[in-house]
Amino acid sequence: xxxxxxxxxxxxxxxxxxxGVQVIALEAVPAxxxxxxxxxxxxxxxxxxxxxxxxxxPGRADHPALASIDEVLxxxxxxxxASVRVTCQPGQLGLDTVLLSALSMIDRVLGPVESIDAxxxxxxxxxxxxxxxxxxxxxxxxxxxxxxxTQGTAGHVFASDSADAxxxxxxxxxxxxRLIIREEGFVWTDLDGxxxxxxxxxxxxxxxxxxxxxxxxxxxxxPEPRVEELLGALTLAQAAxxxxxxxxxxxxxxxxxxxxx
Length: 261
Hints:
By secondary structure, the chain is of the alpha+beta class. It contains 6 helices and 10 strands; from the N terminus they run H-E-E-H-E-H-E-E-E-E-E-E-E-H-H-H. The protein has helices at residues 7-18, 70-76, 95-110, 208-221, 227-246, 252-259; strands spanning 23-25, 54-56, 81-87, 113-121, 142-149, 154-160, 167-174, 177-182, 185-189, 195-200. It has an 8-stranded mixed sheet. A two-stranded parallel sheet has the order 1-2. Strand 9 and strand 10 form a beta hairpin.
């Protein structure tokens, strides 16, 4: 569903939305920037766009600490290096979902990405990585990516659907020190290791199902389109897939031009 620019898929989403149904997906719909390139998902029909009716979970807005940390990020100031880690246990989510979650978050803290250099290792290393075929939903195992922003700052992403626990962690380094953001809160330490600011919510070490249920509940209570977040993460993911195939850094801007976004 949503893997191509198929009118019937987009119409099904619009029909559900028209009946008051909230459409929430644990994988990207549409499945790639190229699936949306023809306009079926992004062009308005009767004043509505199919892509506006879909909520991807877990996106960056679903991270309980990151969603309410704008003032802290502003106080922390310039980011020199950003690292994002999103993992889950086998069978909980696909690598496509955790990778998109990670990329949506690093897109938020790193800014516009100039290039991405990615390596993906499937759970069965002996076979040819399906990533080389360019299908995000076929991914499984682990993904590592190095990113360079247009401002020259560096980013690192690690995503895995075969780890020992659910985790969504962001670590930022800059002149103001280190800022670590987890689902249960954040800790900001200066260059001497002293705590500048911190906050720990009631959420601590929760399971993936609890985190996802909370995100879905939030979407149902406050439905908001997050098209730019999804398309931004999909663009980075498509560049990562291309990098896996070419074995060299690739440009998200080139993906945008190819998809005519």
